[in-house]
Every structure is written in structure tokens, then in C-alpha cells.
Design goal:
This protein is α/β, with parallel strands linked by helices. It is built from 21 helices and 23 strands. It has a six-stranded mixed beta sheet with strand order 10-14-15-13-12-11. A five-stranded mixed beta sheet has the order 2-4-5-7-6, covered by helices on one side.
Length: 711
Amino acid sequence: MAIDLKKFVLRFIDEANGHLHTVNEGVFLLSSGQNTDAQIGEMFRAAHTLKGGARMLKLQSIADVTHQLEEILSELRDKKLAPDQNLGTLILQATDYLSNQLAQLSASEGNNQLPPADEALCERLSRASRGEMQTEPAKVATAPVEKPVTLDTAESSIKQASSVRIKLEKLDDLINILGEVVASHDRLEQQVQALSSLGPRLVQMDAEQLRLQIQQFSRSLKEDFQVQHLQMYELYDVATTIRLLPMSMLFEPVSMQVRELAASLNKQVDCRILGGEVEIDRQLIDRLSEPLTHLLRNAVDHGLDEPAERLASGKSARGTITLTTQQDGRGILLRVEDDGRGLDYPAIRAKAVARGLVNTNAVEKLSDLECNELIFHPGFSTSKIVTELSGRGVGLDIVRKTIVADLQGTLQVHSRQGLGTTFIIRLPISLAMMRILQFEQQNHLFGLAAQYVVEVVKYSRDEIRDIAGRPAIILHNEFIPVISAAELLRINDRQGSLSSPTAVASSLLLIIIQNQFGKMAMLVDSLLDERNMMIKPLPKHMQQQTLVSGMVLSADNQLVSILQVPVLMAMAQKQGQPKTTTPKPQMQQNSWHVLIVDDSLNTREIEKNVLEAHGYQVTLAEDGFSGLQKARLTQFDAVLTDVEMPVMDGFSLTKALRAEENYQHIPIIIVTSRAKEEDRRRGIQVGADAYIAKGDFEQDSLIETLKMLLC
């Protein structure tokens, strides 16, 4: 069945105007001498996305001009061209031409019949990208530029949809609830009138009559208030459903793009859509279009193997990309999955070294999780050739920025060699209202999106341990770093500092927050509330900062800053780096190679820091099975393992290692929170040489135990 492209063209116009605004704003900054690599990168990504959307919708004239514009921006980004006034004028002529094309599309209500691209403009753009810019650029008749673009004039080109389709039953529900709200308001108005008329009669009442009258009025007012409270939330719920659209609105055009892109690459691809009927906020659908397009391009171009390669590995010649949407508690879970070759970790490591992101000596120690992070660096690509689709290093950095920073979501990557790659995106249901946990720090009010909050706990100061040069607690069999909100947010509050000798020693209030990289315990003064709250965007001049994503109003009308948890955790990680000290001369550097096996990222990193500070080489594994595989590939001098792990626990790992001929006499240390005597006995039975309970964990004790077993 053919897909009607008209409805997608109209949405493309809105998005395209936004991309042109990004380019125009960048030209304005370039002409004023404020150019930065980041700004040029934003302009390049905007042109790249605009070109891809135009090609998908068969808007050839827009695609042709945008392609030439992208070439110029690519050369600027790679420092092969230097920005100057003539080049800026030419870019503005191109964006003005594109704006005219979009205006024609809008006037025709999405009928994508546009004249061919202006050949003279395309030629001049092409020559400019090769460094053959004319000194006096000729005017382009179809797109004259009479004045420089400013932020205000560029912004005026952004058009929002002026109408939305609403199901009749939704409108009926909204009107019915509005009627109930009006009736509830009338009852409250009657209460106010009754209170006014009560005044003259108060002098005639005795104390008992007055008490009964106030009690009756209070009960009635409370009941009416509770009814209106419920009605207001019901009204909000119904009003927000009006903006809900099925995910199929997003999936249909991108699935078509997958098929066309696969055909151009001589690949056979089936695109499966699951959960297309799930409805989400239209604002989220609009913002998801660009990152989803980038993910699908990568899946087709990089992820899916060639038909011959698939057949040789026992797969079907046809690859499969699956888009899945489902409700996930208080949010939406979106999966983009392919059954291709998986991430090429050797190529990723090599590219990281070439780009200077990782030192040559450290690159082989990178875990798969750390390699996954590298692909999100701007300009990072493992493609061997630069084409229309590959090698430009654009896409995944903007995917992460959009998902994590703009949409308050999380993004995870899972990849298995030869079996494919999955991107998992979690998003709130709505950006307008979110569940917010509010806390106070020295009379400053802050909020956290509840999706990042694991739990709130109280610990005594004695339970805070110094591990790998930074404070940490042990919670649920896991080491979790602790940092003071006062120190992290640079609030002058020595009472709230972990290092303050005058701080209260009895009880510390800790908020456990988490993202895909790990957990952190944040010390705060007090909790205020947790509720669904309306998010107010920041003023325009503050939107460039990353720590605060928006504001809410507290019950007493105070402004509460909503903190971006991923940014907060990145700051904490940077601030929490152990101070450089001269390690004790315990042994020669790199003399012993130790395998650490633990499913907690925090615990792995803490133990790794402790060992590396004392001269050990360290390799990490996230579960017993992975640890066993690595132990069979590399001969380690010692193994540290947790007990509670998925796939294979620490007892099973220890038993399996002892069955290996080259690990029968290698020291194996179990580090776990299971401190019962029966657990210790079982550890000895399976062949462990030492058993350290995390509750008794001391880094010096670990080092001494290792030294004793190795020497």
C-alpha cells in the first residue's frame, strides 16, 4: 500500500525551518567573529539532516542545494576553508533560496511539486566548497539577500503547526470535565458567600456554636477542594491526550526511508514495527524524528551486513530492523534493533587512538561499555570512505544530545558480535509535566526528575568509607560514591560538606541517583516533596547552560531549579577524581595482572582505581560468564569476583576457574556483601583463597591480601 507523503511534507516544513534557523544563526556568529567549532558542527548537522529529509520526501531541488551547502560546512568544520564575508553571504543566499522553496511547499499545502534547483547557485556553492570562491559574488535572482540575518529575523521563519486533529470523543471528555470544574467553582463561590454572611452572626454565638460552625465550614470546604483537585488533574490528563499521537506517525516515514536506503546500498531489509499504536506527546514525536532517522541510517549503512556476508555466517540474506515502543512505568521505552554484524570494537579502538581520544597504552583495556561511549563523540566514524551516508561523523552525538539533554531521557547501547546492535531509549510521557523530587540545600531549592532517583536513604557518618580516595557507601551489594550537593553545586555551605568537621555526625540524608553509567549518592539538607509538576522552560539567554533544564513553582510560589542528572553525574565524576599522590613502592609497575569481575560498574571502577594506584594492571568483566571467557583468553595473576551476578555467579565462576589447568593455583578473592558464615564456607569449598565482605572493605586490607597471596 502506497504511503501518502503529503502529511509528512507539512511536518518536514516545520523541521526544515528550524534547521535553516540554526544555519542562519551560525552565519551571524561567524560574521561577527564568534565562530567556534561547536557552532560550525551544529550548522553542519542541520544541513545534513535537512538534506536527508528532503531526499526521503523526493524534494530534489531542496536536497541538491542543501547537499552543496553541506559540502561547504564540512570543509569549514575540517578547517580546509576559512570563514569570510563572501562565504557567509553565499551561505545566506542558499538559506534564503531554501526558505523560498519551503514557502512554496507550504502554500501548496504539501504538494511536493517544486521546480529544479537553481543551477547557478549550486555551481557557486560547489566551487566555494573547493576553495574557488569569487571575490565579488553575483546575486542569485531567485534568492536575493538584501540584509544580514539576525537572530530575530531568523527566528521568525520558524513556523509551528497551527492546527491539530482531535478525536471527537476526546473533545467531549474535555467539555464534560470543564463543566464539572465550573460547577465545582460555583460551589466554592457559595462557600465564600456563606463565610461573608457568617460574619454578622458571630457575635451572637457562644464558643460551642462557633466551634461547630467553623468545623462544619472547614469540612465542607475541604471536601469541595478535594473534588476540584481531582477534577483539575483529570482535566490535565484529558487535555494532554489531545496532543497525543500514535508512534506510527513517526515510524511510517522512517520505515519507508529504511527501504529506500537499503535499495540504494543493494541490501535487503525488512523493517518491523511493534507498538506503533502507542501514543505519546506530539512534542516528543516532533523532536524524535531527527535522532531516529540518524539511528536508522546507521543501522542500514553500518549495522546490517552485506547479503553474501550474512549467508556465509548462517543468516538470512534479508536483514531486519525492528522498531519497538511500549509503556514503561511512568515513561516510554523505544528500542531500535538490527540483526547485523554488531559494533566493530577493534575499529572503534583504532579510531579512538587516531582521534587522540584514548592513549595507545590504555586502548586495549577499554571495556565494551566504554567503547560504546566513544561512538557518541562528535565527528567519530569508523567508515573507511566518506560518502553521502557514511564517514562524516555526524549523527550519534546529536542523538545523545537530543535524547538526554533536550528530552530528559536515557540512551543505552547493547551490541553482540555477529548478532546485532540495540539502542534503548527511555523517555518521559510528556515534557510539559514530570514527576519531580524537590530538595533543599542551604535555603536553595532544587529538583530532580524522579526517573533518575533510585531511592532515598539515611547513613551515619561512620558508615561513609574512604575508598579509592573518595567517600562511598555500600548499598545493596554495591559501592556507591558519595558527593555533597553543596560542594557539587558550589554553594557556600560548610555544614553540608562531607569534609566539614562541624557537620552533623548522626544522620546523613542521601539521594541515590542513577543513569546508564552508574549510581551516585548525593548528600542534601532535606527533602521537600515529590509530585507531578508543570515544567517551565528557561529564559532564552539561559538555555545554553546544561546543568538546569527548567523551572517549577513550589507550593509557596518559589522557583525550583530542575537539575540535569546526567550533567550532574558527569560533574561529580570529574570533581571526585582522586588527588594525585605518589603510590607506595609496593611492587614494580605492571608486574601483576588482575581480573575484576562484578556486575556493578561503580564497584568495578572503585576496585580498579585501588589496584591501579598500587601498580597493578586491571581487566574488567561485568558478570561471571564474561569473566570466564576473558580468563580463558588471557592468563591473569589473580582474580577478584563478586558473588551476586547475572548469567554466572561468583561461586560458579570460582569453581569453573579451578577446573581450568592454568588457574588451579592462581589466587581468587571473593569480594561481596554476603557476610554469613555459610557463604564463607561455600567460598572455601569452591576454591577461593580469600573472602572479603564489602561491609569490612578496606583498600589497604585488599592490597595486603593480594600481596600476601601473590608473593
